[in-house]
Amino acid sequence: MKSSVSMRRCICIVGFVLAACVISSRAQLSESFYSNTCPQIFPVVQGMVDQFVAADRSIAGGFLRLQFHDCFVRGCEASVLLRSPIRAAEMDAPPNAGSLRGVDEIDRVKAALEQVCPGVVSCADIITLVTRDAVAAVGGPSWQVLFGRRDGLVSSAIEANLNLATPADPFPVLVQRFGRLGLSVQDLVVLSGAHTFGRSHCIRVMGRLYNFLGLPGLTDPTMDPTFAGTLKIMCPSNQPQGTNVVPLDSTSDTFDTAYFSDLLANRGLFGSDSTLVSNPTSLAIINEAVLQPEAFFRNFSASMVRMGSIGVLTGSAGEVRLNCGRRNQG
Predict the structure, then answer these.
(1) Is 69 designated active site?
(2) Is 249 annotated as a binding residue?
(3) In the predicted model, what is the mean pLDDT of the chain?
(4) Could you give the residue ranges of the DSSP H alpha helices within the chain?
(5) Distance between CA 151 and CA 121 in Å, rounded?
(6) Which three-class secondary structure state does DSSP give residue 245?
């Protein structure tokens, strides 16, 4: 009994420290960080984001996923953009390989800013600002972006495998993944609402459709049967590597609360989506989002600010990369 109590105390202490680190990191960032050194950042980024969205609205979902996958590994320091000649970087890990979108667009924004403010704006700050502007451009909320992040020096495929959520993660695992970064169950559910926009490759849902729990031919019984049948048409079992794409929710080109309505109807695409209705606390947050869309928008904005402060490098830590794909030295 004593050991159990001690363990809970340790967990609480670790959670408190992580949350404190997030708050401390946020305090080191500033909305006016580039006011003197690169005031052009806002029109340059906004103009390019408008072009990207006009060409393909779904790129907003790509930017969101890119920021998530960056911040959940080593913090928000653009390590997800580093390339490795031996394919050992974060972008080479199975959760990212072949599916990260927005990398080339971030490189283009960086090149444009290097023309007007050479060596000033970090790739980490670019990811954060581009994501905010892209979400707002497709009808989603906007939020305050704080600046001053510097870019990391290390990118590891192994760390990405260990830290990124998978489409099959159950609720307790998701809570653990978010909690160790100082994010709450509210953040978990609200940020999962990013799946209101965009698409996924079929490979990430094939297990639920044809091999649930490793049993050939079994479909996840928690899925709405009509929904499962539609997915099977879009993702046939004989499809090589599940290369087709499917919408993340029923209104995948619109940033709204349809994702949460879909969850309540057992039409979540991933197991990690559907599992959110399995807990009373998360279920209450889902119901609030459905009944009060404006509250979801506010909460999503607040959670994006918190996520954007995870593990940031400031001051003399890291560097400001001249090219987002490689370190300045080596």
Answers:
(1) yes
(2) yes
(3) 92
(4) 2-28, 41-55, 59-71, 103-116, 123-137, 157-163, 171-179, 185-192, 206-210, 225-234, 258-264, 271-274, 280-291, 293-307
(5) 10
(6) strand
Cα–Cα distance for residue pair 67/133, rounded to 1 Å: 13
Ligand-binding annotation for 133, yes or no, is no
What CATH class does 27-163 carry? Answer: mainly alpha
Which regions of the chain carry the CATH code 1.10.420.10? 171-303
- Domain at 171-303, CATH homologous superfamily: Peroxidase, domain 2 (1.10.420.10)
> Is 128 annotated among the ligand-binding residues?
no
Would you state the pLDDT for residue 253? 87
Is the Cβ–Cβ distance between 150 and 78 less than 8 Å? no
- For 87-145, how does the pLDDT look when each residue is reduced to its tens digit (9 = 90+)? 999 999 999 998 999 999 999 999 999 999 999 999 999 999 999 999 999 999 999 99
Q: Which of 57, 69, 267, 321 is catalytic?
A: 69
What residues does CATH 1.10.520.10 cover in the chain? 27-163
| Virtual torsion, Cα 255, 182, 63, 105, nearest 10 deg | 160
